[in-house]
Write a structure and sequence with these properties.
This protein has 344 residues and is α/β, with parallel strands linked by helices. The protein has two domains: 138 residues, NAD(P)-binding Rossmann-like Domain (Rossmann fold), CATH 3.40.50; 146 residues, Dihydrodipicolinate Reductase, domain 2. Helices cover 30% and strands 24% of the residues. It has nine helices and 14 strands. The strands form three sheets. A six-stranded parallel sheet has the order 5-2-1-6-7-8, sandwiched between helices. The chain has a six-stranded mixed sheet with strand order 10-9-11-14-13-12. Helix 1 links the parallel strand 1 and strand 2. Helix 1 packs across helix 9, helix 4 crosses helix 6 and helix 4 crosses helix 9. It is globular and about 60 Å long.
Length: 344
């Protein structure tokens, strides 16, 4: 039996990735509908070897749709996700609109798949922030074995995390620099080409940015509320894939060899950790891949039971589209939803 799946925000970076991943993973669909705003009428998007004409979200009837992968932004999701859920369609939302709602499960399947059962309260499931998703995939097996007390993470986040406009700005600025032309900034507060910006999302009263706060709050909700986490989030001139330098402090003694072995056995993780030039993963190599890559594993001697490592993942895939599709697969594999339209 196939499921009718709608992808809202289908013309954006993540929406297109969702369509690609549905096709790649042979998701059991009976029909896929590409939805976007009024201004996208007439556009076409690819789904496998097929081309879909984009339809308007506001005009779509969700009463016969089983799953809506929502990647249309927070404001759209706040308005439309409850309406869609009320029609019996499960919304898997990629924005931050519902992540902190106690009635909405926040899911990374490798970490807390069982919590997906809570979706029935609102028919909405939240996808975490892209930087959080890869982090908790790496932390989960270590927490289960060694008990993580504290995490210090510095992120190196690609411009695709800011959408197509972010990618365009890096490209245009790079081109302008090589052509000796004036560099203009629109999407980012400062020049991103050949530069770093220690500022993602808005500043909060305590001096942290909203992106940093998201990592703290979401890690607690997904993994363990007792974990203390502090983050510094930095935008870097990379098109795709987020990188993170992670330091953890554990309750139990931990060695690099033990951590390496635990991570090698963990779902969604690939360890590439040779202590030689090039024996690690960079953002360029992770782009287009599904795994969360771990490298540079070593003991941190500045704290008791400390460990440091490097974590890289494609933010458009595991950080967004892939995770959403994996959540949909969890619903099906656990028998939590059945197709509305029975096979003839």
């Amino acid at each position: 039996m196939g499921y009718k799946v709608a992808v809202a925000g289908a013309t954006g970076n993540v929406g297109r990735e969702m369509l690609d991943i549905l096709a790649e993973r042979a998701f059991p669909v009976s029909e896929v509908v590409a939805l976007a705003s009024q201004r996208s009428i007439g556009q076409e998007v690819s789904f496998g070897d097929r081309t879909l004409k984009v339809k308007v979200l506001e005009h779509h009837d969700f009463s016969d749709t089983d799953i809506c992968l929502m990647s249309a932004g927070g404001e759209v999701s706040k308005e439309w996700s409850p309406r869609i859920g009320a029609q019996g369609c499960v919304v898997i939302d990629n924005s931050s609109a519902w992540r902190y709602d106690s009635d909405v499960p926040l899911i990374v399947p490798e970490v807390n798949a069982e919590a997906v059962r809570g979706f029935t309260k609102k028919n909405i499931i939240a996808n975490p922030n892209c930087s959080t998703a890869q982090l908790v995939v790496a932390l989960k097996p270590l927490h289960d074995r060694f008990g993580i007390r504290r995490v210090v993470v510095s992120t190196y986040q690609s411009v695709s995390g800011a959408g197509k406009e972010g990618m365009d700005e890096l490209f245009d600025q790079t081109k302008a620099i090589y052509s000796a032309k004036d560099v203009t900034t629109k999407k980012f507060p400062k020049r991103i080409a050949f530069n770093l910006i220690p500022h993602i999302d808005v500043f909060m009263e305590d001096g942290f940015t909203k992106e940093e706060w998201k990592m703290m709050a979401e890690t607690k909700k997904i993994l363990d509320p007792k974990i203390r986490l502090t983050a510094t989030c930095v935008r870097v001139p990379v098109f795709i894939s987020h990188s993170e330098a992670v330091n953890i402090e554990c309750e139990k003694p931990i060695t690099a060899d033990e951590a390496r072995e635990v991570l090698r056995q963990a779902p969604g993780v690939l360890v590439i950790d040779k202590r030689e030039p090039g024996g690690y993963i960079t953002p360029h190599e992770a782009a287009g891949e599904d795994a969360t890559y771990i490298s540079r594993i070593r003991e941190d001697m500045t704290v008791e039971n400390g460990l440091a490592f490097w974590c890289v993942s494609d933010n458009l895939r595991k950080g967004a589209a892939l995770n959403a599709v994996q959540i949909a697969e969890c619903l099906i594999n656990r028998g939590l939803i059945t197709p509305k339209q029975k096979a003839a």
